[in-house]
Amino acid sequence: MRVSWLRALLLTAPIGLVALAVVVPAAAQDEPPAVTEMVRSQNNLKQIALAAHNFESANGKLPSNVADKDGKPLLSWRVAILPYIEEEELYKQFKLDEPWDSDTNKKLIEKLPKVYAPIRVKAKAGETFYQGFAGSGALFGGKAQVAITEITDGTSQTVMVVEAGEPVVWTKPTDLPFDAQKPLPKLGGMFDGAFHVALCDGSVRRVRRNFDPDEFKKTVTIAGGEIADSKKLWK
């Protein structure tokens, strides 16, 4: 599999240096508020994708929900990547063998990292719109973690994280339910229906408002053997 420019950067640069590259471009700073807010969210998605790649580099697998010995999810993958978004001290405060709403872990919900924070819209304290898809064939569809090499549909063709339609508690092991035979869940809660996705190669794309749902479903599965028509999806 060809290594993307992002992955090459990820493997050769310290995360602090990489983070410096993920900033609002100067040209965008003079744009209307809605545009600059979208750029901020794009940068958040880039940082999340970078963290997931760093996690994979260190552990051999992409992040998944933290589970107990029986496979029961306890904490979200968003907690698992904390050390890779420069939040290692917060990560150390979690009891990884306890659920998200245990007495200890519940106190940490309010410590929502900035990279997960809602943009433009309000949500309850500790909630985020950044979610993956959970379901058959999706990246977060099973109990086992997924390696980059298992994304046979292509990392540039597969969704990692999306701006969901409704927020969830960031530590809770909850993501968007996916069933290829059913309508997609609500998306685009931060920007009046418009939304962005981080793909598994680390790139971030803005989705057309009139996107084709059936084409989008092809980007959710990691090994479905389908190639989505990008002209019907990306703006």
What's the gist of this structure?
The protein is of the alpha+beta class. The chain has helices at 5-12, 15-21, 33-59, 77-80, 88-92, 103-106, 213-220, and strands at 66-67, 73-75, 127-131, 133-135, 159-169, 176-178, 195-199, 204-207.
List the defining traits of the structure above.
235 residues; alpha+beta; four-stranded antiparallel beta sheet; two-stranded antiparallel ribbon; 8 strands; 27% helix; 15% strand
Describe this structure in words.
With 235 residues, the chain is α+β, with helices and mostly antiparallel strands. The chain has one domain. It is 27% helix and 15% strand. It contains seven helices and eight strands. It has a four-stranded antiparallel β-sheet, covered by helices on one side. A hairpin with a 5-residue loop joins strand 1 and strand 2. Helix 1 packs across helix 3. The longest helix has 27 residues. It is globular, with a radius of gyration of 17 Å.
How many strand elements? Answer: 8
Q: Low-confidence parts lasting 5 or more residues at pLDDT below 50? A: 1-6, 8-31
Biggest sheet: strands, sense, closure?
4 strands, antiparallel
Number of helices, where a helix is a run of at least 4 consecutive DSSP H or I residues: 7
In sequence order, what are the helices and strands, one letter per element? Answer: HHHEEHHHEEEEEEH
Signal peptide: 1-28
Keywords: Signal
Organism: Gemmata algarum
Protein name: DUF1559 domain-containing protein
